[in-house]
């Protein structure tokens, strides 16, 4: 009995110590807040667990549009206007905005991007955004059709029709001021 009570007391004190430790970590300014600061311990892991669990549960499993030329062309136009400033254009340097963000917005038109994700997964992220990352939620400012068009674009970024790729290859005006970062 006595040993059991000691164990329970030990567990309560241990839990209290963790709460106090976490409180002091944040309250005394030990936690990183600048975009250029080091990552917080477990920050990426915890954030990705939470994101993947929610997206996996909520993402639509069927895609209501075809990735045909018309939808991909419309997606490219939306991408240029609302995504390129952060996620970049093919063979262009990152904008000053993208270069100063934490976490850095991944390139979606070069390399693997999100071509290995279901379009429904990207659609969920476009519609809802990703908290505390800078990734905006676009619902209801883009229509459902527009959000699917741009999601199909990034899902098919490695096999776009030439006309769509050519449109995306025209540099943004802000690119003149972009600086190499890495
Ligand atoms: C203001 C900057 C910004 C804009 C504009 C923006 N994003 Fe993002 N986006 C981000 C950041 C930062 C992340 C990384 C979030 C993370 O690390 O979890 C992200 C993540 C994503 C992801 C997930 C990438 C992955 O590897 O899982 C997708 C898909 C995406 N964005 C699509 C878009 C689309 C499509 C648009 C335009 C309609 C857009 N984003 C506009 C900043 C932006």
Would you kindly provide a written description of the structure presented here, covering whatever features stand out?
There is one protein chain. The protein is mainly α and 182 residues long. The protein starts with a helix and ends in a 13-residue tail after the last helix. It has a domain at 70-175: Cytochrome c-like domain (Cytochrome Bc1 Complex, Chain D, domain 2, Orthogonal Bundle). Helices cover 52% and strands 0% of the residues. Residues 82-83, 85-87, 101, 103, 105-106, 108, 114, 122, 125-126, 130, 133-136, 138, 150, 154 line the site of heme C.
Please give the radius of gyration in angstroms. 22 Å
Number of β-strand runs:
0
Shape: elongated
- Name the structural class: mainly alpha
Spans of 5+ residues with little confidence (pLDDT < 50)?
Answer: none
The number of helical elements comes to: 8
Order of helices and strands: HHHHHHHH
Q: What percentage of the residues does DSSP assign to strands (E)?
A: under 5%
Overall pLDDT confidence: 94
Which bin fits the share of residues in helices?
A: 40-55%
CATH architecture of the domain at 70-175: Orthogonal Bundle
- What's the CATH C level of the domain at 70-175? Mainly Alpha
In CATH, the topology of the domain at 70-175 is named Cytochrome Bc1 Complex, Chain D, domain 2
* CA(first)-CA(last) distance: 61 Å
Ligands in the model, by name, code or SMILES, are: heme C
Can you identify the CATH superfamily of the domain at 70-175? Cytochrome c-like domain
Strand count, sense and barrel status of the largest sheet are: none
